[in-house]
Automatic annotation (TrEMBL):
Keyword Hydrolase found: no
Luciferase-like domain: residues covered: 23-258
Pfam families reported for this sequence: Bac_luciferase (PF00296)
CDD domains: Tetrahydromethanopterin_reductase (cd01097)
Keywords: Oxidoreductase
Gene3D superfamilies: Luciferase-like domain
EC code(s) of this entry: 1.-.-.-
Chain spans, region Disordered: 1-23
InterPro entries xrefs: F420-G6PD/mer, Lucif-like_OxRdtase_MSMEG_4879, Luciferase-like_dom, Luciferase-like_sf
Protein name: TIGR03564 family F420-dependent LLM class oxidoreductase
Length: 283
């Protein structure tokens, strides 16, 4: 199993993920937030995998994203893993003013354009969402592509056109019973987990729900939570003592997660402690 650490923005002075026992650094794009590929490009060459979880497909054209991804791949010495996804209607339509119809079909077509562009192929595509006739001339190794997929239709797109999935707000039961069977053998399953070291797990779950409860009301996450019989995203958090945290992370691994990306809440010392605990699962 590979263990990653979550990077929320530009690193603070002295914040070096290379000093943690991790295999990779992962970042995402929040509405109005930092650009994830630019954040990763700033790392330059090194040893750790650098992943996006995720870059929204809206409003980026697939040619623009392929160009940026290949540029980042060159700058980081071939360490990029590109996670993409269609985001949510409240962002795409309410904030950006773009239509958010048939996101699974839009994503399928997006990948049909993106993947061959990353491989250096000339893409001639005329579809419902994109018309493209171009080849990119950036001679670098194409990055693996993961898809943010939770529902059945998006999981089929991931199975057909991506190297795996990036999932969040996911329990071991959902990984084992929902994600893994839909993807089949060999797919990469990257699970982002919010972790809180605490001697009061109930209070910690309530804290996660208070901080991130808006996600519990987003249709894609709500459908996933309902599938697992969960009240909200707080029920998916990994909370408790070091021993309890290790047991919960182990269950995610045994359920089929190939990677864990840990977002640790609390003081900086807790981040280091959690990664030391998770180091037992690496390899």
């Amino acid at each position: 199993m590979r263990i990653g650490t979550h990077q929320a923005g530009p690193p603070a002075p002295g914040d070096r993920p290379e000093d943690l026992p991790v295999d990779g650094v992962w970042t995402n794009q929040m509405p109005g937030g930092w650009d994830p590929l630019a954040l990763l490009a700033a790392h330059g060459p090194g040893a750790l995998e650098l992943g996006t979880a995720i870059v929204p497909t809206y409003p980026r054209h697939p040619v623009a994203l392929a160009t940026q991804a290949l540029t980042t791949q060159a700058l980081v010495g071939g360490r990029l893993t590109l996670g993409i996804g269609p985001s949510h209607a409240w962002h795409v339509t309410d904030q950006l003013g773009l239509p958010y119809t048939s996101p699974a079909a839009h994503t399928r077509e997006y990948l049909e354009v993106l993947r061959p562009l990353l491989r250096g192929e000339h893409v001639r595509h005329g579809g419902e969402h994109f018309t493209v006739d171009i080849r990119l001339d950036q001679p670098v190794e194409p990055p693996p592509v993961l898809l943010s997929a939770l529902g059945p239709r998006m999981l089929r797109v991931a199975r057909d056109l991506a190297d795996g999935v990036v999932a969040t707000w996911c329990t071991p039961e959902l990984v084992e019973g929902h994600l893994a069977p839909a993807l089949g053998e060999g797919a990469r399953i990257v699970v982002s987990a919010v972790v809180v070291l605490t001697d009061d797990p109930d209070a910690a779950r309530a804290q996660v729900e208070e901080s991130f409860g808006a996600a519990s009301r987003m249709p894609a996450y709500r459908a996933l939570l309902d599938r697992g019989g969960l009240a909200g995203v707080g029920d998916t958090a990994v909370v408790g003592s070091e021993e309890q945290v290790l047991a919960q992370l182990t269950r995610l691994r045994d359920a089929g997660a190939t990677d864990l990306v840990l977002a640790v809440l609390g003081p900086p010392a807790d981040r280091a402690r959690v990664h030391e605990v998770a180091d037992e699962l690496r390899g």
